[in-house]
Design goal:
By secondary structure, this protein is α+β, with helices and mostly antiparallel strands. Helix content is 32%, strand content 26%.
């Protein structure tokens, strides 16, 4: 089980800087253009720390360390004097509906072996992993919280958090990254003890931040070998949200294909998919409705966007999924929409190759409009719209020890970087 603890967070001083101009989303969703925008917003934007400027072929981690120390010396960042938890509420709009999620920020104890009581559901890649390890080792800080979902028995944690929120005004209330973010500092030792006891007996799963978690583990091992004084490196920064919270949303990640097989056209699609899928053209205004219906019925369906036409394909040969995927994959894994898309539609039927590196052929998009634009401008040849995975799938596969396919989940909204930092 996960073991959490309170801590003295390093936070931006609102008397020195406007907080909404110095925070940013997690590093892995920020592109080069967006990074420039955050830097322009403020010389103290946390993006300078999580995505430091490049030096030769790597990032200038020493510059990030220098900035962090200087900002602290200037009082731009200041440590809280009392160990605390930090209630964190995010509000946004999804499909025209207001969504609110309530969680809290704490530290997670890193164990020498195993997963420290939290179960992963994604694989990690060496390059981004090494990047995060190097940054943590140099700055001696956890700059972005790892997003953890926990099983909240009888909504006990939610009741505690809600009770605090109702009695107190937030210390921080800003609008950033298309969402509203509110923060409450909790110093009451009794409430901290209640939450700690409850969480320490709950199942927990990594929602977002698998590379940061693995990097935190590697950083702990590194400082253990150095016989570093103190045990701050034996913890990492986490944001915890209840799996029962109605504001816990997983959004889809759409796919786009850059290079298609020779002879690819509408007839190519129909001839190869017909034995496995029902195929029908649909109007653009019906796209969201058909995907929603499929999601509600728990049916596997995709919408292919090709040469400004939409094709709805719905799986009819459900037995075909049994033959896909790696050896030993469970039926739950095989029935994931993303598994069926990549292993049955792409690999087996349409013969679309998923290359990596310089020859990369599959691209990922969060927004439907952005995907359509890329296909319409001929940057990509084929777009695929699909439904998101469910929290139930994430939990079941994490318990089985199986890793979901790449880009299976997109939890939204994401916790901001810079709201609370763990300096060890």
């Amino acid at each position: 089980m996960a073991k959490i603890s309170s801590f003295c967070a390093l936070r931006y001083n609102p008397k020195k800087v406007p907080v909404k101009k110095v925070v940013c989303p997690p590093y892995d969703v920020i592109n080069h253009s967006q990074r420039k925008g955050y830097i322009k917003a403020s010389p103290y934007n946390v993006v300078r720390l999580v995505l430091p400027e490049r030096k030769d072929s790597t990032r200038n981690y020493k510059k990030a360390e220098k900035d962090l120390l200087q900002w602290t010396e200037k009082g731009i960042l200041r440590p809280d004097p009392v160990k605390s938890f930090y209630i964190y509420v995010q509000e946004c709009s999804i499909d025209g509906k207001k969504v609110s999620r309530c969680g809290f920020i704490s530290l997670l104890k890193l164990e020498k072996k195993g997963n420290s009581g939290v179960l992963p559901h994604e694989n990690v890649f060496s390059k981004p992993l090494n990047d995060r390890v190097n940054l943590m080792k140099q700055t001696k800080a956890h700059l972005s919280p790892i997003f953890i979902v926990f099983k909240d028995s009888k909504a006990k944690a939610q009741k505690i958090l809600t009770g605090i929120i109702r009695k107190n005004k937030p210390e921080l209330d800003i609008y950033a990254d298309n969402s509203r973010h509110k923060l409450w500092q909790v110093t009451d030792k009794r409430l901290i003890a209640e939450l700690t006891k409850h969480l320490n007996s709950s199942e927990a799963f990594i929602a977002d931040g698998h590379h940061r978690f693995r990097a935190s583990m590697a950083t702990k091992r590194y400082f253990d070998t150095k016989k570093t004084k103190g045990d701050g490196h034996s913890y990492t920064l986490v944001y915890l949200a209840s799996s029962e919270d109605k504001g816990l949303k997983i959004l889809p990640t759409y796919r786009a294909v850059k290079v298609l097989p020779k002879g690819f056209d509408i007839e190519y699609i129909k001839s190869r998919l017909n034995g496995y899928f029902d195929i029908r053209p649909i109007a653009s205004r019906k796209v969201d409705a058909y995907l929603k219906i499929a999601f509600q019925k728990k049916e596997c369906a995709f919408i292919l966007y090709y040469k400004k036409k939409y094709l709805l394909i719905t799986l009819k040969n459900k037995g075909a999924v049994r033959s896909i995927g790696p050896k030993g994959a469970s039926l739950t894994w095989k029935r994931l929409d993303v598994s069926i898309l990549h292993h049955l539609v792409f690999e087996k039927l349409l013969k679309i190759r998923e290359k990596l590196g310089k020859d990369r052929n599959i691209y990922y998009y969060k927004g439907k409009n952005e995907l359509i634009k890329q296909v319409d401008t001929n940057s990509h040849k084929l777009g695929i719209l699909l439904n998101p995975s469910t929290m139930e799938d994430v939990i079941e596969l994490a318990k089985k020890g199986e890793k979901m396919p790449h880009k299976s989940t997109y939890f939204y909204p994401k916790p901001l970087t810079g709201v609370a930092i763990h300096k060890f």
